[in-house]
Amino acid sequence: MSILMVQGTSSGVGKSLIVAAICRHFKRMNLKVAPFKSQNMSLNSSVSVEGGEMSRSQYIQSIACEEPPSVKMNPILLKPEIDGSQIIVLGKPYGHFSAKDYMNSKKEELFSMAIDALHSLMVTHDLVVVEGAGSPAEINLKERDIVNMRIAKYTNAPVILVADIERGGAFAQVAGTMELLEKDEKQIVKGYIFNKFMGDKSLLGDYPQELAKKYNVKFFGTMSYIKHKIPEEDSMIDWKKHGQGELKVDIIRLPHISNFDDFDPLLWNTDARFVESGKLEGDVVVIPGTKMTIEDLEWLKERELDSEIRSAVKRGAYVVGICGGYQMLGEELSDPQSQKGAKGLGLLPVKTEFRLEKITSNLIGWENLTDKKMKIEGYEIHHGISISKQRSPFAIVESVNGQKVNLEDGYMSSRIFGTYFHGLFMNFDFTQEFLNMVRRSKGLQEKQIIKSSLIEEIDKFTDLFESNVDTKEIEDLI
């Protein structure tokens, strides 16, 4: 068994995708590979093969490895809330902590759990590719580190640094990181990669190699910038980006929006935009999932977006609620534990009660919205239970975490529907039929949509990685 670690000179340098490419490269060499990140902070999560919650980035990396996504690949997930974070440990809720309390009271216990998870992956795989978080040179956080150099030193993992050259200052990023590392930490850094380069590489001259010599490491290469359809971390998404197309789609940019990549297919195929205020003009209005449903519902009302949504219904727009958005479309939301509650938008005859237990499941079912009654797949992550005295389900669920069931999901009424199916629009046949329903309602011609395969996108990114980076040098590290 072998181990390799990728750390960044800062947050957002693109190390998650570099890890995915390294995983895919070694998978192509017929090794059994697994990704690992001891701790990740994100509102963009997925459901593992065990039915637990894990970060989206490690889920994507598991696809690159062609391995079942496991909570062991991301044993600690922090989901930001208003006054701290919900801590997910091995896929299940562990507690709510402020940043200070978490740093001071739980790090050692969680580090031990993370190491156990890492060891279990190491004994069942030829190679584990570990991802760090942020920067290993945050000297104010080093004492409490459980995700960067502490992992590397504990496992004696060779470290590759990744610097974002698109932002500028990449040489300084590498030099500054190396200067702030301790002597034993510098010894396990084996080299670095410049990532997201746009332009003529000859302009870099021999300076990347000269910098490598200064610190007795190797320069593995410069990764060119590439447009791709692999979901980004929530900290990196451009909320101002627009889609293109005849149909207008308004996606409400809630303060605690989660699983925003649900809507990537809409950005590829419609004039979709994220909206925080003002007039809604979309032919489709989407209320996404959120980590803080009641609080984000109140935010929506404060900005008078509730009135805008009702106006959209009156003018014939389609209104879609996913997870927390579905809950908001109902009549009432209540949380007995916190004694919080709120009136919903009243657009669906549904009431939601929040429970302590979080539901995390992989789902397969059949939708009822279109005449074609198509098969759909997705996942659910929520605390709330939504109940209606009337029956008009959006979908019939036939499988939950691989177990046969016969359950109703969501609710639909005319051009309004809500569902717990995250990943709904990644069902491209359904998305095409849904968008064509909207086009027909506007007298527009039907269209084929742009589709995307995650593994094909990973392969395209890996092909570029292999042509830009000295993979032989990286292979020698293991």
Shape: globular
Please tell me the overall pLDDT: 94
First CA to last CA: what distance? 9 Å
- Regarding CATH, which class of the largest domain? Alpha Beta
Give the class from helix and strand content and strand pairing. alpha/beta
What is the CATH third-level topology name of the largest domain?
Rossmann fold
CATH superfamily of the largest domain: P-loop containing nucleotide triphosphate hydrolases
> Which strand-content bin applies to the residues?
25-35%
Enumerate how many helices there are, as a single number. Answer: 15
Widest beta sheet: strand line-up: 2-9-1-10-11-12
Secondary structure: helix percent: 25-40%
Strand count, sense and barrel status of the largest sheet are: 6 strands, parallel
Structural write-up:
The protein is α/β, with parallel strands linked by helices and 478 residues long. The protein folds into two domains: 2-229 and 456-475, Rossmann fold (3-Layer(aba) Sandwich); 248-451, Class I glutamine amidotransferase (GATase) domain (Rossmann fold), CATH 3.40.50.880. It contains 15 helices and 26 strands. The strands form six sheets. Strands 2-9-1-10-11-12 form a six-stranded parallel β-sheet, with helices on both faces. The protein has a six-stranded mixed β-sheet with strand order 15-13-16-18-26-25. Strands 19, 20, 21, 22, 23 and 24 form a six-stranded mixed β-sheet that branches. The relative contact order is 0.12. The model has no long low-confidence stretch (mean pLDDT 94).
